[in-house]
Amino acid sequence: MDDECINHNCKSGPNRKLFVAPKDVCSYYAVKYGPNRKVCKPCLVKSYRYFDSVCRRFRNQECVLDDEHPGKRRTIIELSDSDDDDDAATEPSTEDPKLSTAVKRILKDTVGPLVAKQDELCDNYLIAKKAKLEKRNEIVNDLVRQAEDGISELYKMLYKHDGQRKFEFDEELSIMDEVCSQCELWNQDVAFITSKQLPGFPDDLPTRVKLIRPSLRQGDKVYGMKQSLLHPWAEATVKLAVSETDRYFHIVFDDGQETVLNYKHLAYINTSSKAQHPIGSRVIAKFQDTNIQLTDKFYAGIIAEPPKYLNNFRYLIFFDDGYTQYVYHKNIRLVCGQSRYVENDVHENVREFIRVYLKKFPERPMVKFSKKQIVRAELNNIWGSAKVKNIDASLVQLKFLDTKNGHTEWMYRGSNRLGPIFNQLSSSKQNKPARGLTDVNKLLNRPYIELENLTGNDKTINIADSDNTRNTQENSGVIKSIEIPANCPKPLPYTAHQCSNLCRISVQYDDSQAKDVNVLSFPLYIGFMRSIITDEKLKLKKVIYTTPCGRSIDNEGRMYEYLKVTGYDTYQITIDVFNFDCTVDPLSKFIVPKVFIRIPDISYEMEPRPISVVNSLNDSVPKHIKYIKDRKTTPGINLNIDSKFLCGCNCIDNCEDKEKCSCWQLTNEGPKNYPNYFKDHDDIGYSFKRLHKRVITGIYECNSSCKCDKTCLNRVVQEPLKTSLQVFLTENKGWGVRTLADIPKGSFVCTYLGVVRTNDDTENDLKNDCSNWGEFMAELDFIEAVEEAKDGYESYVVDPEEESEHDTSSSDYEDFSPSSSDDSSDDPNFEIRSKINKMFVSKMSLRNLQDTHTKIDGEHELSKLNTQQSDQSESKSLRRFVDKECEAYTLDSKVCGNVGRYFNHSCDPNIFIQNVFVDTHDLRFPWVAYFALSNISAGTELAWDYNYTVGCVKDKKIQCYCGARNCKGRLL
């Protein structure tokens, strides 16, 4: 290698002249230095030109990174038989130590400032590069948001036509009567165009007009119930009317058999009525056999869902045999009559299910699915795991993973054979009063129950262009910008120095200064300056803090280091009082006229910041409560807060190293059991005292047994209230809470305090007084939440082979075959006995086409899935092993509590709940803390998701007035 140029990409000829390569040239070409290294003249000149360019930029105080640099070279490992080169390269030093020290001192005095300037220039260069990339990222995100908004608008245009009630003629059109009269003269059909007609409306689906059941006459052709409600109906002819009052008819079937049937067991043989069938209509419909061919057999059922765009203009039918199916209008026949309460006409196996369904209509709980999700479902009386294969409107196709043959079945998404529905029904029987603090299924991207409204037009909410974060009618105040007093210290001109405690000599810190100002603006009162710099070239904004000593800081990491080396952290000036988000304004403050302030401070100075009560609607004030700063317990509840039972850390570095802090490790241990949810283990828990993502397994803060300082990074919820809050009266939601200053995302807001009670005590009180049902109660559901996340965890690990399976289209399965049971007789007291029949919850299902048992005569066997089944996989709750006598606990803030009791519900919340362990590690008693889900502007009401289960309490409904775009309309 001695006769070769060190540049492995050298293009000089073989007769080139070689020179000894210096160390800097070897470094340029990424070659290890040695005394025998050679370089050709062109390559030598090229390297020195680069060095000259760098030096020139260095002297001129220009960024050295803003230039062309040598490209990345491939790494070549050189093999040598000896170590002569290395030995020769190592020579004894003959330098004079005194001379070396003097040279270093001179270099520091002369070159040091240039190096410091270059360091600053390089930082700015990299920041600009980063900003450019962020700008491009924002452009891409904007395009994605525009696409999502376009899809949402398209969905709204399609969905707004849903619902039976919208298929109506416009009665104000005067041309209607004229055209109709001409139709009678011409004796021909005319298609009318209405303003509410769906796009792509099918030709065979009639427009929505009043349904008319014509009287039967002698000789009319009909369908009649030949055997029972679970057998196919057959064609017949009306022979005569036996009783006009009770509407009994003597009919003759086509095979010659004669019988007398009530009009409720007869159906019209054609669809000449030209009317859609409304919800609850008694009908017969065709089914689909195993060969996926329509037969001429009709089975009894009711209309459960109207035809609309989202279900491909089909009716959802609940058949008497317990199965569910989508059917087109042409394959449905209307029953000649039905009872006022149609559930009395159906088979007893599904009677209670139909009654409950129609009672709750147009609202119905449906499980929200996505393809390839895993859900617990019941098959043959056994609960197991099933994978979602396809979704067809209100139906879902499941593949049961625990069966040998991979049983596949279509199922109604509101069936209680689905785990989420079954659990909700179990909860509703208990009338659970308290709101849940976590929604684990949504967090883990699992199937969850969502309330669906079939009509949608019963809602009075019109928020197409509204913003749920601002309500000018309820704000009754203005947002102003705070002016920093002129006598406040200002940053000094920057001079090169090493930051230390001397940097805060000029700062006169007074803790009382922070009482009445926004916590984010407090640094501006003690010598810091916050600026927003705009890059004119990149059009990007960036927050820069200038410290009292003149240093510029542009991110949380550097600010934290600055606070640490200067000793600010010992004065309670923590990192969370600084914010580097341009959209957050530390000087923004919401101000309400004093005339509206009813109570100056509802905490009566128990909180470090006053919490005023404002009412701009009337003269009322909130009911008096005992304001508390710590939770209370009722007699009999053992809340052990002895520090001897706490695990503490030995950190002396403000718990910066999460690997060494035992409290951090307690927080990190839980998520390790859920790698599919907690994918980034470095981003779990607090980040510079802010929480950006909920940790369902709980956060363990440092406590009284820890050796770390009170300002450590793992002490957040236990700190005094920093947020400026105000209680105010809303128009429809009672008392609420709003923020008087901007709150950055992830910031701690406050805690939820009350009296710890058992659920049994809470339920007993509710039975005696239901006026304020569950209004100030929250479940301490930490154990249940974690157990729910654990439940079936192994089943959520999907086999890779199953991931690659081809999903068949659900639109091919439209009809199926019902089944048979004992005959139901005509009984005059039928309706009376039906009204007093006992509770029977039926399981609605869709028959698996591969398992349809069809006999030659068309008779179908009764499905075993129509009977009430128990959950055989039920296991004992972990709570029972912790406390056998007490199943769960509730925080009740009705009599005593803090400001957290006044937060309202929102379907689109801006704060969220986090379970935190501070004074005890007992899993039954976590602290309940609120954190900001996003940046929140001053004057905005703070609201969280109560997570009520709609329909969980019998005969109890609570309307939702949150005004969010995705409002469900009901809380309960």
Automatic annotation (TrEMBL):
SMART domains in the record: PostSET, PreSET, SET
Chief localisation class: nucleus
Signal peptide: none
Domain SET: 723-947
Residue ranges of coiled coil: none
Any one annotated GO CC term: chromosome
Domain Post-SET residues, every copy: 956-972
SUPFAM superfamilies in alphabetical order: DNA-binding domain (SSF54171), SET domain (SSF82199), Tudor/PWWP/MBT (SSF63748)
Gene Ontology molecular functions: DNA binding; histone H3K9 methyltransferase activity; zinc ion binding
Example GO BP: negative regulation of gene expression
Keywords assigned: Chromosome, Coiled coil, Methyltransferase, Nucleus, S-adenosyl-L-methionine, Transcription, Transcription regulation, Transferase
Keyword hit for Nuclease: no
InterPro entries tied to this protein: DNA-bd_dom_sf (IPR016177), Post-SET_dom (IPR003616), Pre-SET_dom (IPR007728), SET_dom (IPR001214), SET_dom_sf (IPR046341), SETDB_methyltransferase (IPR051516), Tudor_4 (IPR041292), TUDOR_5 (IPR041291)
Region annotated Disordered, chain positions: 798-828, 857-876
Protein name per the record: Histone-lysine N-methyltransferase eggless
Cell compartments where the protein resides: Chromosome; Nucleus
Domain Pre-SET: 647-720
